[in-house]
Fold this sequence. Notes:
Its main location: nucleus. Residues 2-66 form the Histone-binding protein RBBP4-like N-terminal domain. The chain starts with a helix and ends in a 17-residue tail after the last helix. By secondary structure, it is mainly β. A hairpin with a 5-residue loop joins strand 13 (173-177) and strand 14. It is globular. The protein contains 4 helices and 33 strands. The chain has one domain (4-400): YVTN repeat-like/Quinoprotein amine dehydrogenase (Methylamine Dehydrogenase, Chain H), CATH 2.130.10.10. The protein has helices spanning 5-8, 188-193, 338-343, 398-401; strands at 9-16, 24-31, 38-46, 55-65, 79-80, 85-86, 97-105, 109-115, 118-126, 131-135, 152-154, 163-166, 173-177, 183-187, 197-199, 203-205, 212-217, 224-229, 233-238, 249-252, 258-263, 270-275, 279-284, 293-296, 302-307, 314-319, 324-328, 348-352, 359-364, 369-370, 376-377, 382-386, 390-396. Helices cover 5% and strands 43% of the residues.
Amino acid sequence: MEENAPYLYDTLITHALDWPTLTCEWFPDTECPPDKPYSISRLLLGTHTSRQSKDYLQIATVHIPKRISPSDALSRENYDDESGELHTTSSSAAPRVQVTQRMLHDGEVNRARYMPHNPNILATKSVSGRVFVYDRTKHPSEPDSDVVKPDVTLNGQTMEGYGLGWSKCWEGHILSSGEDTTVCHWDVQAGYSKGGGGVEPVDVFRGHGSVVGDVSWHATHQNVFASVGDDKQLFIWDTRDPARTKPKQRVMAHDREILAVSFCPSNENLILTGSSDKTIGIWDTRTLSHRLHSLESHRDEVLQLAWSPTSPTVLASASSDRRIHIWDLAKIGEEQTPDDAEDGPPELMFIHGGHTGRPTDVCWCPGPVDVGKGAELSGWEVASAAEDNVLMVWSASANIWAGEAKVVEEEELEVDDD
């Protein structure tokens, strides 16, 4: 990977965290100081210490170098073998990733997500099954005591899980799924209006026969959400339906456990599922009885799915094969030469092979952001975390996603297992 990094990436930042994070999400804001050679974005992170130390919900700043002139074109000389990073001529020597706020958390943070209507409100999925909500503005940059102080606790689930999602069109409403086979739905604003403390769910949905691996709100229909589980099923629910044990739609979607689900933000009928069978299913909710298409290239279970916020047909997938794949659904069915077909299907744009551990989460930076003088965040910046403590911030070369794409050989991205 080292020799090819300057040609495959426009940005490549590798940061070793003190403890692994099982979650990462970009905040929606980006600061672009005119007198600095970088833009400043923020990431929401957690810790997973296995009780060897205190656990925290964390916010980190990330300095992403600006590319403002042809002289910033990358070459082999820009790659730092020791840090595993790319440096432009204008790069700062300051640390690229810095934790700026830590809030004590009860056990590891399985998942953390900010509320779209107020990014200062942060929800976490805990190992106890409870969901904790923090207003970061009410907490110091470092804890002032050893007491865990979430502002609101969402009760209702009795076992841990990883599914957690805020509605983007129903302010303050959040879903959580877990190993107790349930999906819980809360109105967090009601919790704040009661002065914090414990909040019971508005609804509890019991339809799955096993672990519920993930949940996803519909992007525009506020009452609709999806859930998937170890029972291999995809459920579509409507919160207006009084039945809490029978989804509006259901399909046996995969041959093995389903670990991820995501409604398309730009197409109200499209939904994705990621499974232990190594495939990503593309579904149309109007014809849920059959799969539209399968994305096939991963060599192990598909753990996470993330739609690009700027390119409607583009998504990222993370897998236990230690790879992050970038896909473009618009390229499905394009003709390929035999040589190209050996690299993967036409919709596979890019393979990020930088992680040596199993990925835990992947997310897109909101971008693009115009910061003047031709410098910008492209909208292709991605953050990915892995079990080996490594957080990576990267963007594929514009040669790959703009205009004529160059072929990315997977073997070029191989990382030694040692």
